[in-house]
Amino acid sequence: LLPAYASELNPVEMIWGYAKTNPLANFAPTTLDALIARTKSATQMIGQDQSLLRSMLRHGPLSLRLK
User: In angstroms, how far is the first alpha carbon of the chain from the final one?
Assistant: First the structure.
């Protein structure tokens, strides 16, 4: 269990931080549908990059066992 707010302990925060500064940087959607589509695309791209995900997990202070 994670504390109520501890962004440095939550690997999902690293994913969102990466998404906002890389695939979604400078993206100004004109509709909510465009935002949803681009966000889904960005998170799917991140999810397919195992080395990126593993680096985000290693960066955090939690001790996780990676296979």
Answer: 21
